[in-house]
Amino acid sequence: MATTNYDAVVPPAQPTKTKHPNEESETQTRKRVRFASSPTEFSAAASALTPSIPNNPTTPPAPLTRSQISTLKRRIHRLESAKLRIRFFMKILLLFVLGTVGNNIFGIISRQLRMHYSGSLALGFIPPIERFAGKSPWSPWVSLFGTTDKGEVAEFSVPRETLQPFGAYPNILNITPEMREEFHPVVIFPLRNMNANTCKGKNDESAKIARKFWRTQTDNTIRNGESCSASSGDPKMLNAKYDYIIKDHTGKNPDTNESSIMLEGGEKVPQLLPTRQKALEYAKTQKLSKGFDVGRFDEDRRGMYTSSLFLNGSETDHDENTEKWRTVHVGLDIGGPVGTKVYAFSDGVIHSAGYNPDVGDYGHVIVVEHHLSSSGKTSDGDIKPSSKIYALYGHLDAKSTLGKYPGQKVRKGQVLGRMGNTADNGGWTGTHVHFQLAVHPPEKEHDMPGAVTMADRKTALLEYIDPRYVVGEVY
Prior knowledge:
Distance between the termini: 133 Å
Structural class: alpha+beta
Low-confidence stretches: 115-139, 196-235
Mean pLDDT: 74
Radius of gyration: 41 Å
Number of helices: 9
Shape: rod-shaped
Helix content: 10-25%
């Protein structure tokens, strides 16, 4: 029976490696290789992983071969490249986060500042951004980004040309015809009695009947006005139903002088008296007009606004062609006899009231914070929260501002004041009320820029909306 040689099956015993007390483990060595911060440290750590003879202080470690050195160099290069890429992407990520957060903070601050200092969007912290929105540069419209009454950013279309028809301007507050029907008239006009033998016609008893003049008309002669010769021979646009004329202050008519007006007797007087003393003297002998008229919104009145009050700059810039002149009218002028009543069109509170003394300014003026009721009701039956709009009533008489104070309640249809003469209205011989609407509260007390430069026109039309959205299609 054959015997098994177990010595041939069991492998010979391996020599035991004596571990030095300070010698690190293989796992620690691999970590040192992985997180090496320099090529020297990496090479030293990698050498510890290479096969070596048993620990024998008399035997030096085997040197690295060329292939091992080449491999180590490639690994070092890959590590350095990875570090550079990580640093680059971290910088990009940091810039993106800072830009996003900074832009949000900047937008919030700018919106709050614009709502606080909002005499005009052009005066805001960030001006609206103009763009064509894919339209041709020759389009009659231009798109602007502006803020609504709630501080929200929205896009609106603004007409490039002045004196556009009703409905062409941004209706920022979304005033509907149903809302307009509920407004009280700012001024009440009498009806006109057209006579076949005269252009202007003569008023009869029905002309004394008060009518709300803001209703939207369907007759083309009412919507567009008709050309007619007044007693002075100057062509004027007349409204066919209500007894008022539509004035043209553009200066394009060579037969008229926009710096003066003609009284019913044929006498010409300046539109604006040059000094306060002249205004006081003229008021004593002022010939009172009995007619009514309307001065248009978004009208370029270069021949009319010649006072330094309408100049953005010094007197040395006195040039009728300069862009520094504020000649674009952003309100509605409703003319009538001295003492004509001016009404609040909606409920609200007095924002400010006072007297602006400069020649050509508003004189006695009231600013009302009106509340426009939104459509619909709450579950309790109450009207939904209203939008705010700020209305300026300028060129009033001295008694109009007496007893008026901020926060005082105003009711729809309340008589706010009366049209003033030259002693009270800033020196304007053409008695009228300047009616202007603003989306945001005025920057100064009882004041708004009634005219802006042509350069500021587009942004101003987002702040000062067309008053016809309140009074209706008067021309």
